[in-house]
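Structure ticket #2291
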Amino acid sequence: IIIEAYYKKGRIMKHIPYILLFIFLLDAQSLKTPFKTDEYKQIVSVLVNYAEGAKNSDPIKMKASFHESSSFKHVQNKGNFANVPIETYLSWFKKKSTAERFYTIASIDFSGRIAQAKMLFDYPKRNLQFIDYIHLLKIDGKWQIVHKIAEKFTL
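Resolution: structure written out below.
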């Protein structure tokens, strides 16, 4: 209605930059909203705890992020499917690694008490990258990783 009135009076062109700025700011504000929620922050905290534990070869720190019945599934180098209990997976991190590792939380999506995340783990000196897809549930008021699948890529 406002735009029509300006258009009829020939003033629309003069105000287009202001209208576009208003729309941009309105849209930018709506994009920020999910990132400010407590749920989002709690999910990020669980993922960072897991990633920092993996980065520093600290299975005790990692274990705090996983539900006791969670599992890790992947396809091995020869193409065989592997379903690894979480305790076995955590045992792979008992040896302190000197490998340089970096991680990124690429995406998080959540609704109610379910969430999924995509994480990237880079090993630049080994020319490797692992991509993890992680499922989380909010159980008894606490976000936990219940399932993880991963793939290894040579860079």
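Closing remark: Confidence is low (pLDDT under 50) at residues 1-7.
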